[in-house]
Amino acid sequence: MNTAEPFAELPVAPKPPLRRFHQARWDEPIIFELSRPGRRGIAVPEPGAPRVELPESVRRAEPPKLPELAQPHVVRHYLRLSQENLGNDLNIDVGQGTCTMKYSPKVNDRFAAAVAELHPLQHEDTVQGVLEIYWRLERMLAEISGMSRVSLQPGSGSAAIYANVAMIRAYHAARGETHRDQVITTMFSHPSNAACAKVAGFEVITLMPDADGLPDIEALRAAVGPRTAALMITNPEDTGIFNPRIREFVDLVHEAGGLACYDQANANGILGITRARDAGFDLCHFNLHKTFSTPHSCGGPAAGACGVSADLAPFLPGPVVAFDGSAYTLETPERSIGKVRPFLGVTQNIVRAYAWIMSLGAEGLRQVAETAALNNNYLMRKILAIPGASAPWGTRRIEQARYSWQELSEETGVHSEEIGVRASDFGVHYWTSHHPYLVPEPFTLEPTESYSKEDLDEYAAILAHVADEARRDPEMVKGAPYNQTVHKIDPSPLDDPKAWAPTWRAYVRKHLS
Amino acid sequence: MTHPYIPNAEPGVRAEMLTAIGAESVEEFYADIPADLRLNRPLDLPAPLTAEPDLVRHMNGLLGRTTGTDEALSFLGHGCYPHHVPAVCDEVNSRSEFLTAYAGEPYEDHGRFQALFEYVSMMGELLEMDVVNVPTYDGFQAAGTALRMAGRYTGRSKVLVSEAVAADKLSKLRDFLAPDVEIVPAPVGEDGQTAVTAFDDSYAAIYLETPNVYGVVETRGRELADLAHAHGALLVVGADPISLGVLAPPAAYGADIACGDIQSLGMHQSFGGGHAGYIATHDHEPLVAEFPSRLFGIAPTKVPGEYGFGDVFYDRTSFAHREEGKEWVGTAAALWGITAGVYLALMGPHGMRELGETILARTRYAMDALAGSVTVLHPDAVHFREFAVEVPSSAALLDRLRERGIYGGVPLDDRTVLVCVTERHSIADIDRLAAEIAEIAAIQETL
Amino acid sequence: MSAGVSVGLVVNPVAGLGGAAGLKGSDGAEVQRAALARGATPRAGERAARAVRALLSRRPGTRLVTAPGPMGEHSARAAGAPHTLVRSVPPSEPGASGVTTAGDTRRAVLAMAGVDLLLFAGGDGTARDVLDAVRELRERGERVPPVLGIPAGVKVYSGCFALSPAAAGTLAAAYISGTSGVSGTSGDGSGRAALAEAEVVDLDEDRYRQGLVSPVLYGALRVPAAPAALSGRKAGSSGTAPGTVEGIAREVVSRMRPGVRHVLGPGATTRAVGRELGLATTLLGVDVVERVERVERVERDGAGGRLVAADVSEAELSGLVEGGEAVLVLSVIGGQGFVLGRGNQQVSPRVLRAVLGDAPGDAPGARAAGRLLVLATQQKLAALGGRPLLADSGDEDLDRMLAGHVQVITGYHESTIYRISAASEELNG
To answer: Are A398 and B29 an interchain contact pair (Cβ–Cβ within 8 Å)?
Structure first.
């Protein structure tokens, strides 16, 4: 019989307004500290054939100083680390704006795993099913963008942008117009557009936002000319604002003999609503890990898709899948820019993206877009109701919005980054990558279709709470986090060549010897 | 029905939210999209398979129309390798916490930072270099970036690139280096190794791979390093890390930058979807400054005994004299870095050595086994995992083998086939290949 | 906190007075008396206290060195900061009028030369006084501490001010932590210096009150650069760093054809162009330079440059650009976006006509294309909030001719196209 004094009673009290979260804190050592000589995580087959004696010039002199652990401890270590990571499946992941964090259906992971044992250089006859998936996904993305052909080879969005730049360069070169050495972009287009253009040797002209937050069309008029190779533009831009004069932008560039290239990283709110080709674009790209749901995988592998008009199709990276009505084959376009990555693409993600579209269809994609826009506009009302939060350039937004804590920050001295870190104490987060840093104390929220109204209410309540805390106790916010795996980090050694430790061996050499 | 992936597609909540916003319909959010840009019809897409069993049936139908390397006996390699993937690698990289995360801060994503720090640290031990990047897309990109780094570091715009490099990789390098760095090819000698005949002060780097495209282990690394250094250039070496339990790491013979693909370290072949690239250097600040990639390092926290992490030398990309040929940083292949870390932790120093010994031995065994019926190229060179054979017709041989359930190798040209052998191929598998090839050769001779 | 680190604090107690009273600035005793008479209450002391509180919360126990009374002591007390008073400033309980003078600020700064960081609260006028004192220290060969402005004035256009009082405190704390830690904070040109050069500009207040905006560049102060940790150590996926002053300079030099005279206007950005050429050009003056040889690829140590003439007068400049090809290289001065007519009056209408010539073409900006290079970081343009750049050359016809869109160099191989207007039309219309 239980004789202890009762100390709690039923019913259990309601939950408090904010979640009492604490991230896993295993206080896990670095894996080298878990090593004990002689232990092994996995066994290797014996040669079964005479050993080969290596000449000294190529023989490894000493074994690498890798850690030595038994298998249970490798599993335990990495599973602990996994628990110390906030995946999209675990949180209301609306804070990594521009990245389109959405639910990646579990069933699609099974399809991805099913291609594990396919070698990319198998004979076409032995991989017809997977080639058909490439073909069908290409046709679906061609319909979604209005483009003629699509390459699924690039390994990410930025790699797709680079492939597009390379095609632009090859297109002008084929026409004898190598003097076209300028690429025009806008301040709030994704910064990879400018970066990739520079890598490909172009000079970059960036159009600044006007008083409405849109790129200045008069500036474009002054910028275009015989040196214009292309306009590379995101729309809606990373502000969430759709440029209503986009057709005029495209026309101006075309009149000058340049190409128009559409970064569709922010396509999630416009699927089935408007298409790249219908606005006159010659090239575009999608991020399959954003709009088409493949998981972000801690930063890749991802996948990108380049869509082009018929005129640009001969320049696509090769090979592409062809279909003659009965069999799928690989062919390299006539004037292909060549390879942008090994083999055909990140196949697991091609399979996932295909399955995702197949589960939604045309009506489902439109529902994705409309819900993303609805969620964003709903969340925007809630965020702008928080004292100290603002959004420049009014409230016309499609699927995301860039906000500012400037007012709160000037009042309290608390920075946006610190607010984000404090929010992580409540099990959510936002990231701080907001190039080009024109909006002071920025945060960018993109509530895709995967989140419920209740999710958005909770997220806004957390930010409201932290903003209030910043006023009442700014040092509390600045000292965050408290409920995370580790406490506030002092980053200063990271910039000091004498102290920085980009590997364990550097750390041991500089700090433990 | 409300779609299972879209909670707010439910009409009641949709109406509630519109009311809260003060909007009549979602159309209001699209006011900025002009009428003539609107798609006034549904997209022309296949009917959806919203019910999961229907989707599974459809996908299984497609995926079933393939015959994988686990159903045939495959000797395909050439950049994508059939090494054993430990179950623990799949277990860790399919954890939702890693699989679905992106780019949180080093607090809520501490696990990602530590796992990637450990990956680069283990790579550093294998490579005997102190600085290794968070993975880039693949080995192609790693080589392209490494050569651009050499160009920026030396202020020179020409590199000598071994011809014993895969054709696809050269295609990528030509495109990627195009505006800034010229590629001069270095021929392959009779022995299957890179031969450098002319070199001068105008070169930024010598680039070679080991094992190279023919599976040949380059033995003159030290000589080439000395040559490069005598002319103020760098030696850049592409090396598959899986070989480094037995082969000397590039740093040991004087390489300044090592680079390559890590697919071998725990990634499935996945029809080419398992690639990720590494780049490594010594801790030499001016060279570290040329990394376009992220580098993770240890930083202290408020609490003694806690490891924090962050980006090392974060602002290096803003240095003015490095703005020429600057590269982008983006989502690449982080999860494969974490996986490769798991692989190296499982293997340890002795696992890596034993694996290398097994592959060396079986490669030589296979070369000897095939030598009776086809011409094995570069027979005297040290080979790791791959070797090339000369045959009357690559296509004919491979077609015949395929009929017998064998993917015999990758055709490098009409008469050259590249054969790949790993720890997954038993001696019996190799004997079977040799027997089938002997039989086919005999038939062809009689024709 | 590390032992021995000290932070100086000088408050200009009357800064900001004029703004509240609608007097557009607070320079001069007359204006200050007028403001007080209109019932204005001093706020600089309170803003300084806010900065000190932010500093103390990050670095508890930081010792202040400050001036007596409203020139710092009151703020230190209000914030609960341990402090020492400097003696050499006369305990100028400001006169019966409640007014302190520019001389008080200068004397206070001179007395604090030994501190590790000097905070001052005020506006652009105060920054000028600090600059004067810094120059005096330099002339005497004394140590010059880095400084940081706490924004408390009506006009705060100079680059030496933090975004807010709290931000000033935070930045100061980060800076002194850096000096006590292992990480390199020296301004040794290694590229990771924790100090940056910030321009001191001020408007001519008399002209301002008449509706004329006339920013003048007075010099530059060494201020703590916001470290990456504050501006955001980005966990981001992408992007290159925004263009830098050095990148801009490199781009300008890459465009220079040897033998063509380039007129470098005043400012830190144009001075960086001189540095890229390996020349010591002036900060405040107008200099004429040339690239000496055809070098396709600029070497790391700077391309060869030749200083044709330094700190030229209008007449000298006119003589130097007559009859030969020349290019004007101008940066944007102050927060209003002036490109011509502020601090660079040497670039007179006749110089402009000589350089720009009678280039054909009516397209906006075409006339200036290639012969006028405007330099600005993206941040500086962004701060204009969509307002145009301004030309006020002294010849309104010429200004109108220049109006339109110009290419502004924002980094290496990076530029933008930005609107420029005649100042007369923009400010009066």
So the answer is: yes
The amino acid that residue A155 corresponds to is G
Mutate to test the interface with B, among A35, A66, A478 (most CBs of B within 10 A): A66
Residue percentage of chain C with pLDDT more than 70: 74
Q: Are B318 and C241 inside 8 Å of each other by CB?
A: yes
Record: contact A409-C240, CB cut-off 8 A: no
Residues 6+ apart with CB under 8 A from B270: A112, A115, A116, A118, A347, A348
Alpha-carbon distance of B174 to B160, in angstroms, equals 12
Residue range B158-177, pLDDT digits in tens: 999 999 999 999 999 998 99
Record: contact C299-B155, CB cut-off 8 A: yes
Q: Is residue A36 less than 8 Å (CB to CB) from chain B?
A: no
How confident is the model over C180-225, as pLDDT tens digits? 433 333 333 333 336 777 888 887 766 655 655 567 788 888 888 7
pTM: 0.88
**Contact at CB, C238 and A190, closer than 8 angstroms:** yes
How far CA A232 is from CA of A204, A206, B117, B439, in Å, comes to 10, 10, 35, 58
Q: Which of A120, A162, A274 sits opposite B272 (nearest CB)?
A: A120
Answer whether residue B112 shows pLDDT above 60.
yes
A1 to chain B nearest CA, in Å?
Answer: 43
CATH number for domain A107-359, candidates 3.40.430.10, 3.90.1150.10, 3.40.640.10, 3.10.20.590: 3.40.640.10
The residue range of the domain holding C338 is 245-428
Q: Are C117 and C193 contained in the same domain?
A: yes
Mean pLDDT (chain C) is 78
Which positions ≥6 away from A130 have C-beta within 8 Å?
Answer: A115, A118, A347, A351, B62, B63, B66, B271
Contact A247 B43 (CB under 8 A): no
- C156 at B interface, C-beta within 8 A: no
CATH classification number, A367-492, choose in 3.20.20.70, 3.90.1150.10, 3.40.50.620, 3.30.300.20: 3.90.1150.10
Looking at the complex, does the CB of residue A409 fall below 8 Å from at least one CB of chain C?
yes
| B82-141 residues touching C, CB cutoff 8 A | 102-106, 109
pLDDT of residue A15: 95
Using a CB-CB cut-off of 8 Å, the residues of chain A touching B9 are 367, 371, 449
Confidence of residue C167 (pLDDT cuts 50, 70, 90): confident
**Three-class DSSP labels, chain C:** CCCCCEEEEEECCCCCHHHHCCCCCCCCHHHHHHHHHCCCCCCHHHHHHHHHHHHHHHCCCCEEEEECHHHEHHHHHHHCCCEEECCCCCCCCCCCCCCCCHHHHHHHHHHCCCCCEEEEEECHHHHHHHHHHHHHHHHCCCCCCCEEEEECCCCCCCCCECCCHHHHHHHHHHHHHHHHCCCCCCCCCCCCCCEEEEEEEEECHHHHHCCCCCEEEEEEEEEECCCHHHHCCCCCCCCCCCCCHHHHHHHHHHHCCCCCEEEECCCHHHHHHHHHCCCCCCCCCCEEEEECCCCCCCCCCCCCEEEEECCCCHHHHHHHHCCCCEEEEEECECCCCEEECCCCCCCCHHHHHHHHCCCCCCCCCCCCCCCEEEECCHHHHHCCCCCCEEECCCCHHHHHHHCEEEEEEEECCEEEEEEEEEHHHHHHC
Intra-chain end-to-end CA distance of chain A, in Å: 60
A308, β-bridge pairs? A149, A283
How distant is the Cα of C275 from the closest Cα of chain B, in angstroms?
12
Residues of B in contact with A64 (CB under 8 A): 125-126, 128, 244-245, 249, 349, 352
